[in-house]
Write a structure and sequence with these properties.
Chains A, B: Keywords: DNA-binding, Transcription, Transcription regulation. 2 copies of one chain form a homodimer. The first copy, chain A, is mainly alpha-helical and 143 residues long. The first copy, chain A, has one domain: Arc Repressor Mutant, subunit A (Orthogonal Bundle). Chain A is 68% helix and 10% strand. The first copy, chain A, has a 3-stranded antiparallel sheet. In chain A, a hairpin with a 5-residue loop joins strand 2 and strand 3. The longest helix of chain A is centred in the N-terminal third of the chain and has 19 residues. The interface between A and B is large, with 58 and 58 residues. The structure holds a DNA duplex (20 and 20 nucleotides).
DNA sequence: CGGTATCCCGTGTGATACTG
DNA sequence: CAGTATCACACGGGATACCG
């Protein structure tokens, strides 16, 4: 017998949302979720983490090639931000020419898992989204 | 016996990443993942979806109260964008005073699940992140 | 190579005012 | 109530030039 435990799931989801909103109501910097989600939402962060997921370690210009379209400046900024939040480690070798190796920390790896799920979601629902966009366009043309 | 199938998981993750990057290399607007992730990354979209997850349906000003700090303009823009992508439905009742009810579509609900996982991740790792930030600050002070 | 510093422009976003 | 319209402006982010 297959149990469609929709109601149970609904309850769990509701609870989760309530929890999120409890946290969300704290002020400014003190709100961790608002704060963290704002960071992760950044598109360059997402792509940089994905790129670092491909290589175990990567150097600056390697990353720049992988993350299509990112400028030197934004890669620097993004990497610093990720480092600051403990998602990426930065190993400097005092050689000439200088070498710097970036890698995901274990925390970063754990986030990578989340990113991949998001990416999978995006992939598997792209058709629905595309369809919705077409509908929306037509709707606008009618009025 | 507990099997730590790290290697298997690694393989899966690698494969997933490669898949994402295959898609990512297509050009401009044609890249669905780049496109979709960029949308979802928007912080107002995230919070609006979470808010809509709390109520089955919600009216404009209800949402405005729930999504702490959002301006009228940005709520409008965000809702339109979500509607355009098929995540939110918009039901207009031609009454006076006018009434408009927003709700998550099934697609939106499915995305909500993903958002909640992200939020959970953020919650359960906030201490590590906070610690990383402290370390980073100190590191900067040393040099 | 792996950055930092500076400039500068577009647009994202808040504030305010008006409308059906 | 549920928006639209307009303006003003800070800030993200690209281009460029320079440094250790």
């Amino acid at each position: 017998m297959i149990v469609t435990n929709t109601e149970n799931q609904e309850l769990t989801i509701e609870n989760k949302i309530d929890k999120v909103f409890d946290m969300e109501h704290c002020e400014g910097i003190l709100c961790p979720i608002k704060d963290i989600l704002a960071h992760l939402g950044d598109k360059w962060s997402i792509f940089t983490i994905l790129a670092l997921g491909q290589n175990k370690v990567a150097r600056f210009n390697e990353l720049k090639k992988q993350v299509n379209g990112i400028s030197q400046r934004m890669l620097t900024v993004t990497l610093r931000s990720l480092e600051e939040n403990g998602l990426v480690s930065r190993q400097i070798y005092p050689e000439i020419p200088p070498r710097v190796e970036y890698a995901l920390t274990s925390l970063g790896h754990s986030l990578l898992g989340q990113m991949l799920q998001l990416a999978e979601w995006a992939t598997s629902h792209r058709d629905e989204i595309e369809e919705a966009r077409q509908n929306f366009k037509e709707k606008k043309l009618v009025f």
